[in-house]
Amino acid sequence: MRLTLRPLLLVAFLAAAFCAPAHSQFPDKPIRFILGFAAGGPTDLSVRALAAAGAKQLGQPMVVSNMGGAGGTLAMAELARAPADGYTISMHTSSYKAMTSHTQKLAFDLAEVSTLLGYAEFRHLLFVKADAPWNSYEDLIAYGRANPGALKFGHVGPGTSLQLQGLLFFRSAGVQVTDVPYRGSSEFTNAVLGGHVNAALIDIAGIRALARAGTAKLLVTVTPQRFPDFPDVPTALEKGIQGPELFNPLVGVALRRSTPPERIKRLHDALRRATEDPDFVKALNDIGLKSGYIAPEAFDETVARAEARAVPLLKELKLLPQ
User: Fold this and answer.
1) Residue-range domain boundaries for the chain
2) Burial level of 73, CB count in 10 A (0-12/13-18/19+)?
3) CB hemisphere CA count around 284 (13 angstroms)
């Protein structure tokens, strides 16, 4: 009896040892990738492109789940409540922590969420309608300085990156403006083209086709470099304006801070490689976003710098909750 049992025990032990690494391999099931915006927009499309590229690296599907509402807060709250096991991650933007989180009373601890990496950047520029009387940045600024409060610019609502960026941009140029909120970028774009407001800041993706068609006129970019598609359009930095570029949202991935380090590394390394995937790069270029890996430390540093500029503006605009 003893002779029969020993080989069986040995076989069972070896089988368990052989199978253990497979069961402990992370991930061994799909990753849930949530985002706080509706399907079809640039952030949603960027997440889906990253999820597709990331799935190749991880060997497991990354299932995108849209949880729009409260400027991204519903998705962040969902992430903060999820198990810290790496199986739930979320898209987040630098503007969420720097701006949006300050305008709401959060029902969760934002410190529970940490940056995994960044992978894209929105790039904003200032435009007017094609037949506007201003043919350059200097023309517009000269008019604004001579007519305080006369210039109106459109944006997507109080406390958003486009509102704060616009206010900081014009103030830095010594111009007093009137800001007009709209419900979305398509609304304020139509308002500019219809002459209801004079100008607006918008991401290149939202105005590129209109500029190429000659319907909109681009005056200045709020980016470190000029756009290759529009090399004649100067940057705000060239005009001596610094600061508004901090409000170009970075797009990244967040997860629970207490996720095991080895799982954080696995996700980080896989998604970093995903940012180099040719299909991902092409998808983001088609959207109009600047793609590329952003280290979590660099992402958080940008958030901190934007936050330092944004919070005083939010306080002045009485947008901080009482």
Assistant:
1) 30-121+249-316, 124-246
2) buried
3) 26
- The hierarchical CATH code for the domain 124-246 is 3.40.190.10
Which residue's entry shows tokens 């598609």?
A: 229
pTM (two decimals): 0.89
Q: Which helix (H) or strand (E) holds 176?
A: none
CATH topology of domain 30-121+249-316: D-Maltodextrin-Binding Protein; domain 2 (3.40.190)
Condensed to tens digits (0 to 9), the pLDDT of residues 213-271 reads 999 999 999 999 999 999 999 999 999 999 999 999 999 999 999 999 999 999 999 99
Pairing of strands 178-181, 152-155: parallel
Q: For residue range 21-73, what is the model confidence (pLDDT) as tens digits?
A: 444 699 999 999 999 998 998 999 999 999 999 999 999 999 999 998 889 99
Give me the residue label for tokens 């520029």: 125
pLDDT band at 204 (very low <50, low <70, confident <90, very high): very high
